[in-house]
Amino acid sequence: MTDTLKILVFVILTGLWLSEFIFFSSPKKESLAGKKSFYLVLAGILVSILFSIIMFLTETALITGRNGALLRGVSLVLYAFGVFLRYWSSRLLGEDFSRSIAVRRDQDLVSRGPYRVLRHPLYTALMIMVVSVSLFLQSIPGIVFALVVMTAVLGVRIKEEERIMEEHLGERYIRWKEKRQLLIPFVI
Q1: Start-to-end CA span in the chain (Å)
Q2: What is the pLDDT of residue 104?
């Protein structure tokens, strides 16, 4: 695959990611719960990507040559998987999808698709997508920065979301979450 084709695929995947805001809009009457952590995650995404762009443009510790070309190809596969996982997970949540943390006491806990094995596939997808952007830009500091920042901000968001889920759904959520990994199947 040529560099031009890789860039085109990257742009298309980025467009798909951003169009998530059109296809999966949040409910009109969204609660304020989780708004701060939503903006924290959004800032983490933007800062991670901006840092990776700066590292790429300043050619700081880039992975080049054959390894760089391979890395770009791998990053596109991961990026596509992340976008797919994000769309799939959002679709499974249906009307319960929200960018804030909105929980109804009678809410069903989704146990299909990626929710069979993961508690937070949407956040797994975000991590994959942001790190994939950094991988595509081929800067080692950018990749490390994205991993650290996204782990930190998603950790805050997940902790808040799980606390609210336990408050609203109680033992039902606790039993559900005990059967699933946090973010990565068979790891965490």
Answers
A1: 34
A2: 80
Q: CA-CA distances (angstroms) from residue 106 to 82, 99, 109, 136?
A: 30, 19, 9, 42
Q: HEC states along 9-73?
A: HHHHHHHHHHCHHHHCCCCCCCCCCCHHHHHHHHHHHHHHHHHHHHHHHCCCCECCHHHHHHHHH
Confidence tier at 122 by pLDDT (50, 70, 90): very high
Q: At what angle do helices 121-136 and 3-18 cross, to 10 degrees?
A: 150
Question: What is the pTM (predicted TM-score) of this model?
Answer: 0.92
Task: Please state the domain extents for the chain.
Answer: 3-18+33-178
Tally of CB atoms within 10 A around 127: 21
Q: Write the pLDDT tens digit of every residue in 14-39.
A: 999 999 988 887 665 555 667 889 99
The CA distance from 73 to 3, in Å, is 10
Residue 186 to residue 49: CA distance in whole angstroms: 28
Give the CATH number of domain 3-18+33-178; options: 1.10.1520.10, 1.20.120.1630, 1.25.40.10, 1.10.540.10.
1.20.120.1630
pLDDT digit string, tens, across residues 90-107: 999 988 888 888 888 888
